[in-house]
Amino acid sequence: LSPSQHEQTLFEERHLRYISPLGKGNFGSVELCRYDPLGDNTGELVAVKKLQPNKQSTVDDFQKEVNMLSILHCDYIVKYRGVCYSMGRLSMSLVMEYLPYGSLIGYLENNQHNINTRRMLLFASQICKGMEYLQTLRYVHRDLAARNILVASESLVKIADFGLTKIIPSDKEYYRVTQPGESPIFWYAPESINESRFSHKSDVWSFGIVLHELFFYCDNKSNPKRVKKKLLINIHGPSISMHLANILKNNWRLPSPPHCPPKVCSNLMRQCWAYNFDERPCFSSLGNQIETIILSQLSLGERHWYTLD
Ligand SMILES: CCCn1cc(-c2nc(Nc3ccc(C(=O)NC)cc3)nc3[nH]ccc23)cn1
Predict the structure, then answer these.
(1) Which of 75, 105, 134, 241 could pair covalently with 139 via S-S, beta carbons 3.0-4.6 A apart?
(2) Burial letters for 286-295: b for 16+ Cβ neighbours within 10 Å, e otherwise?
(3) Cβ(293)–Cβ(121) below 8 Å
(4) Known catalytic residues?
(5) What is the DSSP string of 219-279?
(6) pLDDT tens digits for 199-256?
(7) How far apart are CA 167 and CA 68, in angstroms?
(8) Which comes out higher in pLDDT, residue 113 or 250?
(9) DSSP 9
(10) What does 162-180 look like in DSSP terms, one character per residue?
(11) Cα–Cα nearest to 108, from 233, 211, 28, 32
């Protein structure tokens, strides 16, 4: 056993009872299971990510994802619980804490009426803190998007799905990917589109897109279904990515979502979408700016928030 496997909690497959599907991540699908060794339904609910067996490379990537998640300890990152080997250690599943409210996108769409700007800024600051923590470990997420943010409670969200996460080598400030991945380039920074270059600053660009999604999905005026189709088109192929890279170069950016407070849209998002990555803020600065906006609104009392909404 490798040293890291000694700390891993082992879940025995025979006690892992399948309940329902939860979603699809990179390299695999996630299912709701109950780990019920006593067999009396008193066991706890867990989220189990199974590897979709296709290419050998994904088995190694999956093992890396498991090892990476197992050493992350942060309130704003989905908790690792352990692994479950089946078919005599031939296949492995990742066992994580179950977050009852599901993905952020679904949550926003189903709770549009009672999510106010303050709550979305709270969620944004939590994502920032999670990303700040990842950065201390030199992790680049590479797939920061609302679909990969999970809701733990009415006032807590967590970053999930580390399938594309890479560790930046200590002698460099970025990670260059050889084969461009599957994730839609809509969330990619220009340097990621053009040179497959990923860094903490390209994660900051993606965070700007997540801010846009936050304020777009909860806007009950816009029909999220239509918007979702438009936003989530998996734009692939060199021509489309070239087109996107060109309009970004010519300073086109996503239009501000309706009813988005100017400080957030024209300011925070624009900072994240600076063409040159070294002009983008770091996650700690973004976190402080978001906290300042939250506090400045609070000091103006509830009334102001109402009008802001
Ligand atoms: C991020 C992409 C991969 N992925 C991870 C998960 C996941 N989901 C949940 N809970 C969840 C999900 C969906 C719903 C729902 O009602 N749906 C209509 C309710 C609760 N807990 C999780 N813990 C760790 C991963 C994980 C789902 N997809």
Answers:
(1) 134
(2) bbebbeebbe
(3) yes
(4) 143
(5) -TTS-HHHHHHHHH----SHHHHHHHHHHHHTT--PPPPTT--HIIIIIIIHHHT-SSGGG
(6) 999 999 999 999 999 988 777 555 545 444 454 455 555 678 888 899 999 999 998 8
(7) 9
(8) 250
(9) P
(10) -TT-EEPPTT-S-EE-SS-
(11) 211
Cβ contact 306:297 at 8 Å: no
Nearest CA to ligand 1 atom 12: 102
d(CA 242, CA 2): 44
Q: What's the Rg (C-alpha) of the chain?
A: 20
Ligand 1, atom nearest to 78 Cα: 24
Alpha carbon distance 303, 24 (integer Å) = 41
pLDDT in tens, 180-205: 666 678 899 999 999 999 999 999 99
CB of 286 closer than 6 angstroms to any ligand 1 atom:
no
Residue 19 phi, psi (nearest 5):
-115, -55
- Total number of residues shown for the chain: 309
Q: Which amino acid is at 54?
A: N
H helical segments located in the chain: 3-7, 56-70, 104-110, 117-136, 190-195, 200-217, 224-232, 238-249, 262, 270-272, 283-299, 301-308
Query: 173: CA distance to ligand 1 center in Å?
Result: 32
- pTM of the full predicted structure? 0.90
* Enclosing H/E stretch for 94: strand 91-97
Which atom of ligand 1 lies closest to the CA of 49?
A: 25
> In this predicted complex, what is the ipTM?
0.98
